[in-house]
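A further point concerns the way the authors explain their paired sequence and structure data. The central task, working out the structure tokens from the amino acid sequence alone, is never made concrete. I therefore recommend that a typical entry be quoted early in the introduction. An entry of this sort, consisting of the sequence and the corresponding backbone structure tokens, reads as follows:
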Amino acid sequence: MVYIDLTRSFPEPACTYTGDCVPECRRTERDGYRVSVLVASSHSGTHIDPPAHYIKDGLTIDQIPPETFIGPVTVIDLGRRRSAIGAEDIRPFLNAERLIIKTGYSDVIKFDPEYAYLSQDAADLVAASGIRVIGIDTPSIEEYMGTGDVHRRILGAGIPVIEYLDLSAVSEGDYYMIALPLKIKDGDGAPARVIVRTEDI
């Protein structure tokens, strides 16, 4: 059994999405111990978007059962992609219980708005598929400065979205995922620790 961490290290200020809070970790030492002050938005680094991120009265991050984020997951590798991900790219994999999309963005260490994202047709397909969670290694599942319609379609179907994953150490295939967001009361999103294991499931 091998565990692979899919979480970006915190903080990565240079990777901050335009307009978002720049994450910080301010460390202090006194009286023989160390304490850090963390500054971040609910969507800093590797994080999970619940329906409440875009859907009025949608489930908040603390209302989603943990088992939603724990279980079988399929990782697909689209190579080094910097364009829209169409329905044809993901259709063969939508029988998965959970889906993660690898686009080669994990090696980017400074925010680059030229990243892969789901097209509206792909979002419609995901929303109708019955999968429980979708994830991607880019800053957003939606194009840079998009309208929000991709998020609304997927989150409106009750499917949480994991964004900004580090997929550099994982290959295409089937895994078992454990993704645990911070339990933020009434949260519109939360940073998360996401790991997969290679044990047969």
Observations:
- The radius of gyration is 16 Å.
